[in-house]
């Protein structure tokens, strides 16, 4: 019995082979430019002492925060090239390995930490006792003599 024809497999399931051509070189790093003396402040600006805000107010402020004009990417082509490199090669730049390791560790540890903290909270403050196995005396004595 013949199998019905199916659609071709998606491109990410197809086998790929290493090529003999050299990869394109990475983009040239930008040169460091020292700021001109007119741009750097001579003396630190004194700010009047304002009352400190609480942690909750600082984290969840209700004001509308506008991004700074410098937050826009200056060279969009570099970002596009980097994302295409990740898709093509299948792995991130080695510079991001420590950050990726931390994020992965947080993702793995957070559910465990949440669960265990609740269990320990129940034991400490809500009086929940750890389960104890019931042992029959007759079976315990017989098993100990062997």
UniProtKB/TrEMBL annotation:
Residue span of region Disordered: 1-52
Highest rank taxon of the organism: Eukaryota
Keyword set, alphabetical order: Membrane, Transmembrane, Transmembrane helix
Transmembrane segments: 103-121
Stretches with biased composition (Pro residues): 1-12
Keyword Membrane found: yes
Name of the featured protein: Uncharacterized protein
Organism from which the protein derives: Friedmanniomyces endolithicus
């Amino acid at each position: 019995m013949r199998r019905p024809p199916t659609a071709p497999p998606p491109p990410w399931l197809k086998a790929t082979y290493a090529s003999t051509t050299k990869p394109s070189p990475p983009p040239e790093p930008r040169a460091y430019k020292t700021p001109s003396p007119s741009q750097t402040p001579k003396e630190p600006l004194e700010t009047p002492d304002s009352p400190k805000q609480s942690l909750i107010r600082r984290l969840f402020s209700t004001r509308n925060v506008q991004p700074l004009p410098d937050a826009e990417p200056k060279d969009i082509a570099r970002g596009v090239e980097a994302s295409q490199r990740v898709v093509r090669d299948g792995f991130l730049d080695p510079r991001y390995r420590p950050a990726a390791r931390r994020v992965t560790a947080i993702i793995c540890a957070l559910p465990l930490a949440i669960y265990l903290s609740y269990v320990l909270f129940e034991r400490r403050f809500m009086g929940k006792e750890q389960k104890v196995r019931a042992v029959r005396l007759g079976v315990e004595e017989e098993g100990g003599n062997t």
